[in-house]
Amino acid sequence: MKEIVFENVCKKYGKNTIIENLNFTVHSGERLILLGASGCGKSTTLRMIAGLEDITSGNLYMNGQRVNDIVSGKRNLSMVFQNYALYPHMTVTENIIYGLKIQKLPQAEIHARLTAALGKLELDGLENRKPKDLSGGQRQRVALARAVVKRSELLLLDEPLSNLDAQLRVHARKELVKIHQAYKQTFVYVTHDQVEAMTIGDRVAILDKGRLQVIDTPNNVYNRPANIFTAKFIGSPGMNIFKGSYSDHFLQLGKQSIKLSEAWSAYIGEKNCREFYFGIRPEHILLYREKHRDTFAGVVKYVEEYGSRRGIYFETEGSEVVAVTEASDFKPGSNIYFAADSDKLHIFDSKNKKNIGYPEVYHGNIYQYQSV
Ligand SMILES: Nc1ncnc2c1ncn2[C@@H]1O[C@H](COP(=O)(O)OP(=O)(O)OP(=O)(O)O)[C@@H](O)[C@H]1O
């Protein structure tokens, strides 16, 4: 399967730089997700891999071969587009096998691949329907079937689930992973939906304004975010970030301070950090109604209902903070006190905003990603 290497890849439209100095590798056979806000350059990156966009400078390699000047048709890939791009006048079968007929594959081979794909993608019985007579989910499966029958080494997917309703998306996410397990192609998958990214990806590459912010496993981007951008981008709501300082075992936030664990104090001392940003995920904040030792104080401003849990927005030292909790008795205007377990605290360098790491004692404590 294909390994893809970006080496100092830049893309400009006229004078506008859209992609800046991209350096990363998509490993052979992995599911890599390109994640980022609208306009960050995800589709452009995917289209450069597909050979549908020129590369302004830098090199793109596939299995060690430089492919900058190799046309799309010769890159041994298939692509699923957001709008599926099915041929409206063709039936499901005709859509799926169209590319194989163009390749002039033997009839028996075409038939075998079609039958396997119809079965795997649960399209049996729909062979003679036209796209207009299919549901959104069925159309999406036809588009996937058309892509997988090509048995190319690389499958590129551009927001393939965005036209599906929320329930169907949950189902389709699992189906995509199963398809990958069946065909084992290298997947590069574009989405702006972080739940999709976290649930489908072996690794997630997060782009911001054409720059790669991080490329890591879903577990790490959530539990061990490499920088403040990633910490705030991943999670729903994202991580709370505070400008703080450290002095002699105490973490200071504005006029308030709490005592840090021995492990953090030693670690921060070792790193010689005085001023930094610290972060706590909303779902990891410990909330109290009464003042406790080693808590910060705030005032509740707003409560957002999520059903089983709620988001409590409160203000402390001039910053807005959000905590996600099952507790239902925090009301706007009431006092609130908060802290975080030491193994759920994150500290970022005040200048480059990168994660400074964790004391060794907390390395084993990894929490699962949850979305509200
Ligand atoms: N042909 C083009 N000419 C000029 N600018 C373009 C062209 N295609 C894309 N862009 C610009 O490049 C930037 C990145 O676009 P791209 O489609 O890659 O973003 P994206 O992250 O995929 O966004 P979305 O999630 O909204 O599709 C955008 O600012 C877009 O306006």
UniProtKB/TrEMBL annotation:
SUPFAM superfamilies recorded: MOP-like, P-loop containing nucleoside triphosphate hydrolases
Superkingdom to which the source organism belongs: Bacteria
Listed Pfam families: ABC_tran, OB_MalK
Keywords: ATP-binding, Cell membrane, Membrane, Nucleotide-binding, Sugar transport, Translocase, Transport
Membrane found in the keyword field: yes
Domain ABC transporter: 4-234
Protein name: ABC-type sugar transport system ATPase subunit
Phylogenetic placement of the source organism: Bacteria, Bacillati, Bacillota, Negativicutes, Selenomonadales
